[in-house]
Amino acid sequence: MIELDNGVAVLHLVEIQPSELRPLDEVKADIQKHLQEIQGRQTAELTAQITAKTLQSAVAKRHRFQDSGGKPEFKGGNDSGICADQKPPRQTGASRRSLTRRLL
Fold first, then answer.
1. Which of 102, 99, 85, 88 is nearest to 41 (CA)?
2. What is the pTM of this model?
3. Are residues 55 and 72 in contact, defined by beta-carbon separation less than 8 angstroms?
């Protein structure tokens, strides 16, 4: 029984249904999309960090930048060990599995 401003309401519970996990086939596409979005952000962040370090190193060494069709190049050596074309590390299966477990 619930008291309301204009009277009372009597409720009767008919059935209790326990929560269920959704089938993997139903959520698989959502999980894949979410993981791809995360990986895309991580790749973009890492690319930005690598580019920033490369540029900082070049500026510190007073390199002169030249236009090479949208890809910055600089004259001189790169002792920083960082290359603008360096690819970010791949995400491991273990980190994907742990994220999948957290989503489910």
1. 88
2. 0.42
3. yes
